[in-house]
Amino acid sequence: MAKLIYSTIASLDCFVEDSDGEFAWAEPTEEVFAFINQLERPIGTYLYGRRMYETMVYWESNDADFSRSVEREFAEIWRAATKIVYSSTLTSTSSKRTSIEPEFNAASIIRMKETLSHDFSINGAELASHALRVGLVDEVQLFLMPIVVGAGKPAFPNDAHVAFELLEQRRFANGQVFLRYAVLK
User: Fold this and answer.
1) Quick one: pLDDT band at residue 180, thresholds 50, 70, 90?
2) How many Å apart are CA 127 and CA 145, to the nearest integer?
C-alpha cells in the first residue's frame, strides 16, 4: 500500500510562511536540497492546493534560472511526477502531467493509497491539514529552519490532535533539522 507523505519546510515556531506571506527564509542550502532530492525521487505523485501549485510550477520551465545542479535535478524529478491540483477556481494548468480536482476527496486518496505503486506526497499546509484531520497522512517529513517568524501560516492544523513516532532525524551544517515521523493511527 502506498504511503501519503506530508513534507514541509517550517520555522522553529512551525510556520510555513511568515505574517507577510513570505518564505524566502526557507530556501534550502545545496546540502539540504541534495537531501530533499533523495527523498523526492521515489515520489511519483504530488497533491497540491492551488497556491502551492502556483508556487511549484516554477520548476516546469525555468531551466535558465537553475544555477545549481541540485535545482536542475529537482526540476527533472518534479516534471516526471504526476501532479493533482485541488482547486475550485483553477480552470487550467501550465505544467505537463497535471490534472485538476475541484475539491479534496478523502475516498479518492484512499483509492490512490490502494492502487499506486509508489508513495505520494501532499504539499501545502492547508491541503495537508484536511488530510491530517481525517487520518490520511501516514508520514510527516519536517524540515525546521533555525528561525522564529512569530506568526503566519501554520504547518499543522490548530484544530487537530495528531500523535507521531520519530523515525529519523538529521542535522545540517546551516543548523536546519530534518525530522521524519510516522503518524500514529
Assistant:
1) very high
2) 21
